[in-house]
Amino acid sequence: DQQVKQNSPSLSVQEGRISILNCDYTNSMFDYFLWYKKYPAEGPTFLISISSIKDKNEDGRFTVFLNKSAKHLSLHIVPSQPGDSAVYFCAASVTGTASKLTFGTGTRLQVTL
Amino acid sequence: DARVTQTPRDKVTEMGQEVTMRCQPILGHNTVFWYRQTMMQGLELLAYFRNRAPLDDSGMPKDRFSAEMPDATLATLKIQPSEPRDSAVYFCASGLSTLAETQYFGPGTRLLVL
User: What letters, b where the CB count within 10 A reaches 16 and e where it falls short, cover A59-83?
Assistant: First the structure.
């Protein structure tokens, strides 16, 4: 039972354009969400997070949007750069168990020149 | 430059053999996690420790997997006996217990069981 779903295994975007990565969740107890970025042969690294009390969080070129009613979040990268090419994982947790993350299966982003 | 280290980076073994994966958490981190990455399931939490005590290993197949922290600088994950379906990348992560953002991942051990 996949509680966090990333339905697009891959995405290709031109350099300079917007990349939008999507994530859906089924567990209504989740109230904290994170995005991780992973390069080949490396572990995932934390990118950006959002609490359920917010619907948007921005950090430079990265913005995460949360739609609680739809149980959906998205990561926007503007503008996309070749160095953004990586696998992006969405993760969710329940307050009080912030250490216990449930991850999606990942979306591979390819930013082309 | 504090990092989580994992050994070995790659392991090829035959079905039925014992496999031991090691992790050195970042000094000062009090929480250690083991994850498994497969194409179908993504990253799954296998077990985690806080202050060296196991808090949750519900994600681990109990009959063949075991996780321990002999001391604060070493975490181990053992599979005995290994099976082809255990082939995956195993990540260790360490962190500060209440802050998910401070969970730092190691580079992973790529395991192939033939």
Answer: eeebbbbbeeeebebbbbbeebeee
- Residue B107 CA to its chain's centroid (Å): 11
The answer for residues whose C-beta is within 8 angstroms of residue A18's C-beta and 6 or more apart is: A76, A77, A78, A79, A80
Mention every residue, 6+ apart, whose C-beta is less than 8 A from residue A53. Answer: none
Flag whether residue B27 sits within 8 Å of chain A, measured between CB atoms. Answer: no
Contact B41 A2 (CB under 8 A): yes
The token duo for B104 is: 């730092």
Collect all residues of chain A within an 8 Å Cβ-Cβ radius of residue B39: 105
Chain A CB contacts of B106 under 8 Å are 43
Would you write out chain B's pLDDT as a tens digit for each of its 114 residues? 689 999 999 999 999 999 999 999 999 898 899 999 988 878 898 998 888 888 888 889 889 999 999 999 999 999 999 999 999 999 999 988 767 787 899 999 999 999
Q: Which two tokens stand for residue A1?
A: 């039972």
Contact, B13 vs B19, CB < 8 A? yes
Q: Which two tokens mark B19? A: 């496999």
Q: What is the rounded CA–CA span in Å between residue B23 and residue B104? A: 12
Distance (Å) from the alpha carbon of B91 to chain A's nearest alpha carbon = 7
Coil, helix or strand for A24?
strand
What gap in Å lies between CA A110 and CA A14, rounded to an integer?
8
B112 inside 8 A of chain A by CB:
no
